[in-house]
Amino acid sequence: MKLPPIAHVAPRRLGEAVSRLADAPPGQALPLAGGQSLVPLLASRDRTPRLLVDLRDLGELTGVGEHDGFLRIGAMTRQHTLATHARIGAAAPLVAEAAARTGHASVRHRGTFGGTLAHAAHPAQLVVAAYALDARLLVSGPGGARTTALRSLFAGPGLRHDEILTAVELPLRGPGSGHAFGQFAHPVGGRPVASVAAVVDTAPDGTVLRAEVTVGTRVSPPTAVDVTHRLRDAGAAAGETVPTGPGQPQRQGPPAAYCRHAVRVLADRVLTEAITRARRPGAGAPPVPSGSGHDAPPVPTRETP
C-alpha cells in the first residue's frame, strides 16, 4: 500500500524538532527515525499524520559513552552499530546480541535504537533486551529534558506527542553477571512471535544471587519475572505471563497457547545459558574506559516518578 501525502521537514537542531512537534495537534506530527517501525504503520493507515519530523540530521542524538554508572547510547544509533560496536558488546552484550538478531541486514542499517523502543512493539528483540536491563530513557520536550524508565512505557501513556527520545541508558553490570537471548520467529517474514531474555548475577563461588527472565510476545507486553528461587521451573513461571484464556483477541500468527509453549522452552534455555556465561572466568568484566571511543555528552535531566 502506498503512503498517503505527508509533509516532511528535517531540522538540524533538537529544539527545532521539538517545536515542530509541539506546534501540531496530537497525532498530526510524528518524529521519523529509521522508519522501519513507522513506515509500515503509515502504509497501513494505522497512523495518519500530516507532518513527519525527520531526525536523521540531529547528530546530537548519536554516540556511545558512559555517564554516572550507565552506558549511554544515542537514540539515533543504528541497529547495526548496536550489534558491532566494541563498547556496547563489552558493556551491554545482551543488546548487541538482540540487535544482531533483528531483521535483515538492510533493516539493521536503517533502524535505530530509539525508534524501536519508542514504538514499543511487544516481541521486538531490542525492546525485550532493553526491558530486561531496566533501561532508562532520556526524553526532550517543550518543558526540557527528563528521564523515565522504559518499563513505564508499558504501564502508562508513554511518550507525549511533543517529546523526542534522545538517548537510552543501560546500567553497567559488574563481575559475575551473565545474559542470554532467545526468540521464536514466524517462518514467513521472520518477525518475532516471542522473545525471551535472561539476566543473572552470581557470587564468586557461582551461587546465583539474582535471576530474572523477561518475556515479550505478540499477544502480551514485555514482563520481567524474578526466578531467583524458581530456577528449576523458570520456564513455567515465564509461560504464566502469556494469557491463554477466553477472550484473547485474534492476531496474525500462532495462537496464544502456542506462544506460551514457545516461551516455556525459550526461558529454560536462555536461563541455563545466562548462568553458564556468568560462571565463566572474566564474566561481566568492566567495559572499555570512557576515555576511548565516542562518548555521549552529558544531558541535563529531571527524574520522573
Give structural notes.
It is a single chain. The chain has 305 residues and is α+β, with helices and mostly antiparallel strands. It has 10 helices and 12 strands. The strands form 3 sheets. The chain has a 5-stranded antiparallel sheet with strand order 4-5-8-6-7. A 4-stranded antiparallel sheet has the order 9-10-11-12, sandwiched between helices. A 3-stranded parallel sheet has the order 1-3-2, with helices on one face. A hairpin with a 2-residue loop joins strand 4 and strand 5 (70-74). Helix 5 (93-100) packs antiparallel against helix 8. It is globular. It starts with 6 loop residues before the first strand and ends in a 27-residue tail after the last helix. Residues 246-251 and 285-305 have low confidence and may be disordered.
Features:
single chain; 305 residues; alpha+beta; five-stranded antiparallel β-sheet; four-stranded antiparallel β-sheet; 12 strands; 28% helix; 25% strand; disordered C terminus
